[in-house]
Every structure is written in C-alpha cells, then in structure tokens.
Please model this.
Amino acid sequence: MSVSTNAAADRSVCAPLPVLGRDVTVPLVTGGEAVYAALDYAASAPALQRVWDDVAAYAPYYGSVHRGAGYLSQLSTDLFENARRTVADFLGCRPDDQVVFTRSTTDSLNLLAAALPQGTRVFVFETEHHASLLPWERRADVAVTYLNAPRTPRQAVDTLEKALAAREPYGPALVCVTGASNVTGELWPVRELAAAAHAHGARIVVDAAQLAPHHPVDLAALDADWVAFSGHKLYAPFGAGVLAGRADWLQDAEPYLAGGGASRTVSRRADGGVDVAWHTTAARHEAGSPNVIGAYAIASACQALTEAGFDALVAREQELIAKVRAGLAEVPEVRVLSLFGEDAPRVGVLSFVVDGWNSSHFAAALSAEYGIGVRDGLFCAHPLVRTLLGGESQDPGECGAPEGAPGERSLNAIRVSFGAGTPDEHVSRFLRAVRELVAEGARWSYRVEDGRCVPARGDVG
Ligand SMILES: Cc1ncc(COP(=O)(O)O)c(C=O)c1O
Model:
C-alpha cells in the first residue's frame, strides 16, 4: 500500500489498495475493450492482492484443523485460531466475546436466530436486507415486530424506543439493525439504537456486511452485542463469514449443526441412545471441518485494512463519494435514493434511478458499452427499495423502449458501489457514461432475456 504524498492537504488519503482483477479487460459491444471497472463492491468486492498472496503462501502448508497430529495440521490449527484472535481485535471484541466462523452474514444471522432463547421478541426495521429481515420468522416460538421505515436517524431511535417500551411481557428481546444500508449506503445510528435497546433490556446485533469493509467496527465502543459480516465483501472471497459477540446465548443454544468438531464427547447410553457433551466455545457452532482458508483470508484482510489505516481509507472513500454525488447531481434526470436525506453520512454505496430509463437497460449499457459493472434491481431489500421508489417493481419489459416518460417513477434501481481498491478513473468513467447515456442514449440495441436486459447480438441500435 502506498500513501499519497503529493499534497499536504491529502496526506491522510491513501492510494487505492491493490486488488485482483485491476488489469482485466472486457470486450465492448461497440468494439475494442476496456479495463473492467468493478463498481459492484456491495455485492462482492475484489480480493485484496495481499489476501491472495497470503493465501497462496499458506496453501502448501494447508492441513486439517483441530484433528491431525501432523505438523501441517498443527500449523493449520494455529492459523485458524490466530485468525479468530485477529478478527476479535479488528472488531474490538470484549474479553468474553466469541468469534464464530460461518459461511457469510446470512449464515451468521441464521445461526443467531437459531440460538435465540425461547420466546425472544425480535425488532427489525422493514428496511433491512433480507438476510437480516427474514431469519427470525422461521422460529415458531419467536415473535417478530417489523418497524416502519424511519426517515431520519432520530426517528429510527424513537421508533425503536416506542416499540420496545410497548412490549409485554418483559423477556428476552433482540434488535437487528444494519450498520450501513446496502441500498443507500447510509449509516444507521447503531450506538444510539444499542443504547435504546439496552435501556429496555434488549440486545442488539449489527449487520455489518456493508459497514465492516468501509468503516471501523468496534463492538465495545458501539456497545453492541453481536456483529455479523461476510468475507467476500471484505476483500476475502473464500466462503467464510463471522458472527462475533456475546457468548451466553450461543453457549446455551443447540449446536447450529450436529457433528464432529462441535461435540466434546459422545457415548452410548444404557437405553441404546447416544449422549453428547457439546463444546461451549465457538466450536459448538462450527461442526464439520472448518474453512481454514476462508478464516485466514478474513484475518489477512482485517490486517491489511488496519495496516493501511482505516482513517485514510475512509478519507479516500469519502472523496470518491463526493465526486460521484457531485457528478450525478449535474444530471437532472438522475435521482439518488435516500432514506435519511441527501447529506446523511454514508459509505461508498449509492442507488439511483434515471428518468425515462429502465434500470436494467441502463446497467446493461454501462457494462456492454463502457466495461462498467454495477447492479440493478431491488438488491435483496425489496421493502426498502419499493419505499424509496414509491411503488411496486416489475420485470424489465422492453429494453429498447424507455419504461415511461421523463419524470415517471422507475420500477427498479441502479446501484454503484466502490471501496478500497477503486481507482479514480473508474468513477470518472462511470460519471462520463451516465452523462453520455442520458444525453445521447444507448449506442446498441438490447433485448430481454430471462428477465434481464442484454445486448442484442450483432445489432447496432
Ligand atoms: C446489508 C447486508 N446484509 C447481509 C447481506 C448478506 O450477505 P451474504 O450474501 O454474504 O450472506 C448483504 C449482501 O448483500 C448485505 O448487503
């Protein structure tokens, strides 16, 4: 990682961190090719070069974890357990917290849902990603209260306080909230929500899938009970995720999966059955052979971000956000989606609609004509996007024909997202592409295939 030194004013801003795929070129329908501009970090971020190098250096030493007498097994076990400690440091865990390695944020939140004490009341805003909206209802003995979309951070806290104050009878309760929205990028008032939850005897889990890659997360400082995130959004795409936080509910719960690794001893009973003593450590919920490469990759990413300096990464990302917002503001046909208002603090995730354009068509043209990868749709947060768009979504329809006259509402949105590896050129090219597409239209024809707009083959529009 090199730090920009060209001006005193930007001494605290880093250069982009090297990521895999930074030189990959993709063909353009209009001829030639372009270096791929990965502007879909919110879905999956490119791997940090450092993470890839660390994994490659470890790969020859790969061995079984927690179950081998050989040297490489012991080395791999140490690596896995050290990864746990690195992640705990990265997240500001308290001494008694547990770090459980999972497959993803979705897996982490499903694990926590499975571990809730009987009769827990769960409070969740309707604006959540489906991964934090849906796991709770699967428990028949858990009551879920869905809270309406707040329009300011203060309203979020007030809404939660009212809902918690009204709950009867008093028993275990959990609040689940996103740290940063995967649709608007807006930061949620996690510390204030945690204080409100605790004042009413409830606990709180933070869905940090979009927060952790962009912003320091400190469990102790936030006074949050758990945090969940995914490796593939944190530049470590090897199939692992994390649930970190309070040990008690996890220790008392049935193991997430039954099997080796989670069990300490297993014996036959006189009546022919089987007695199991389960671990009470994180291993209780990590049955089966653990994903050592995934865990190590996450730890490597945590170290890389810490060493680069989160303040400098945040400063750089804020510059990119300002550039994107200013550029989009110059195009009157573009409307950026926001729950908390234009100036709300946010991470590098922005969704928008373009008057007179079907979002799938626009995203397809960005890809096919400019080599830019964004996402279009409802982003696994259907209630939120529908609220922001003010209506129901539908299929892309005809790509060639705009879905409505300028000024009509769009039925899906386009999301651009970026992070530690994004060079300025990707953002500049994106803004130029938006300006050109809006002013001149697409240069190619598109058709609908499997509900998505794709370039029509060999057919200039
Ligand atoms: C806010 C948020 N939470 C949860 C998830 C789910 O993450 P994963 O698909 O890695 O489980 C995502 C993924 O986009 C997300 O953006």
Q: What stands out?
A: The pocket of pyridoxal-5'-phosphate is lined by residues 42, 104-106, 129, 131-132, 178, 182, 207, 209-210, 230, 232, 380 (CB under 6 Å). The CA atoms of residues 262 and 283 lie 5 Å apart. The longest helix spans residues 71-90.
